[in-house]
Amino acid sequence: MREVYFIKQNKEKWLGIEQVIQGKIKKNPDDLSSLYINLINDLSFAQTYYPKSNTTVYLNHLSSQIFQKIYKTKRVEENRLIYFFRTEVPLLVYQYRRYLLYAFLFFILFTSIGVLSGAYDKDFANIILGEDYVNETIENIKKGNAVGVYQSGSTWGSTIGIIFNNIGVGAKLYIYGISGGVGTLFALLSNSVMLGSFQYFFYDYGALKDSARGIWLHGVFEIFAMVVEAMCGLILGASILFPKTFSRFNSFKSGFKDSFKIFLSTIPFTICAGIIEGYVTRHALKMPLVINLAIIISSLAIIGFYYFVYPSVVHKKINNHNNHAVL
Hints:
mainly alpha, 2 domains, elongated
């Protein structure tokens, strides 16, 4: 069958499914399942005969959207908050997983720029971090207390200030995506270069090990969440720049809804990072090294599993369940 005829034959059905996804047409769970099965058949046909066609890309996107719609609708007894974190967010992260990869690649690139800049320009840390901060930290390093800057202020006061500051940084990384992703990349560049120069600064003064024992106690959650927030900004930007078959406005609405849900999932990690920084980091050099490592490694395992491994697990589980339902 020629692709043009295939599109003409199914166009009305696909447009109707778009209406269902957008909530303009209501369907019960059984009807949604029938639509999904029908759409999967169209997708399989397109993948076989038009593998590199925009039609295949469109049907793949449409099937993923109706797929999510089914399991939102079928959920009856499950707690909304549990469902959000256990199923909805992982499915969205899986759907937009390439943006997470892009965000991490940019993060690594920008952080490397910060490290190289610090290595080739000894005044770079002063410019990026501020002379007062640099001078205070140098004095702390000389006293054998590389993380002394984290010991000022009360625990609860510091924690609240840190949490709100980090949420603000994350919000900027996300919202700046409305500029087509350019603002997000600029914000990520700024924060990553600061991190790179910050770490090289400690290396240059022979205190990298001590600084890592303290900084990465809270830094694993904080920095990883920052990258995921940048991912959300890139999704938002892409929804504006690349609407595909949708109108630009409908594409933006869909991109905003999905990216905002992923952004919300970073808030608990940001709060945990703030609590650790306010209450634990100040004691970093007094703690046994094994405890530092346990906190850092367990934090990395938790957040890494949630955003890199668990989305594939959820997608595979639901896909297998749906295949059994079809059979």
